[in-house]
Amino acid sequence: MNSRPQSRISSLAFTLIELLTVITIIAILMGLLFPAIGVVKDQARKAEARAAVMQIAAAVKNYYTEYGKYPVADYSAATSTPPTDLRLGDKNSAQAVDDNAELFNILRAKNTGKNTDNAFNPRRISFFEAKSASDPNAPKSGFADTAGSGILGALYDPWGKEYTIIMDCNYNDIISLTGLYSDFTQTSQDGVDTGARTGVGVFSLGKDGVVGSPKDGVTGMYRSGSKIADDLLSWQ
Predict the structure, then answer these.
(1) For residue range 12-46, what is the model confidence (pLDDT) as tens digits?
(2) Residue 223 and residue 190: Cα distance in Å, rounded?
(3) Coil, strand, or helix at residue 102?
(4) pLDDT value, residue 64
């Protein structure tokens, strides 16, 4: 009497071989999917950094329009006679003279640091806003707005490096890229500097955290033959 139900259950159940086959197929699919997810994440980070460098450059230019000068505080390089271009951000790889926190204190109308009492933004205009980084000890994709191992007030890219900003403080329509990208060689009208023809340049060092260095290319060059670095540049 019970033979038919048991045989029906047996015919519907998976065999061990069938289970192993299904598990193997799932493992193969997951192996194919994970690299694709990584590629999508990298593309999303690049898109975020590309948008950020353009927004930062626009904020600095808006400040210039409002005040008739760049938000350079009292850095000696920018206030010397004659002044020289000011580079703020990554002090190691990008050879900046200072981190970017003081610049963003001005652009965000933060009453702190060199901008105490809004000395460099007396109209208290907010030229730039972005979210706070979620982890103050390893800030990425935002401001280090709370105490941690990051530089308080600095803006970080999606890979945890500071965005670097160069401002044309000698007003010759060229940002000097000495020590950075040697393949940008446009010369200013006064013949003083070579670099990119723009008043404000902003860049992220990308995933590799190195200036230039396209894969199989030359360090310190944005382009090397057909190779292009993973850096995100506002003037490109």
Answers:
(1) 566 878 778 888 888 887 777 677 666 778 899 99
(2) 26
(3) helix
(4) 97
Judge whether residue 110 has pLDDT over 80: yes
Longest dimension (CA), the chain: 105
Alpha-carbon 112 to chain mean position: 24
Hey, how many other C-beta atoms are within 10 angstroms of the C-beta on 102? 23
- The lowest-confidence range among 72-81, 88-97, 169-178 is 72-81
Going by C-alpha positions, the residue among 138, 141, 166, 164 that lies closest to residue 151 is 138
Domain ranges of the chain: 42-233
Q: Cα separations (Å) of 99 from 44, 88, 129, 185?
A: 25, 5, 18, 26
Taking the C-alpha atoms of residue 15 and residue 79, their distance in angstroms, rounded to an integer, is 80
Is it the case that residue 7 has pLDDT exceeding 90? no
Enter the tokens of residue 195. 């670099």
Report field, pTM of the whole predicted structure over 0.85 = no
Contact 174, 181 (CB under 8 A): no
Going from the C-alpha of 4 to that of each of 10, 13, 15, 19, the distances in angstroms are 10, 15, 19, 24
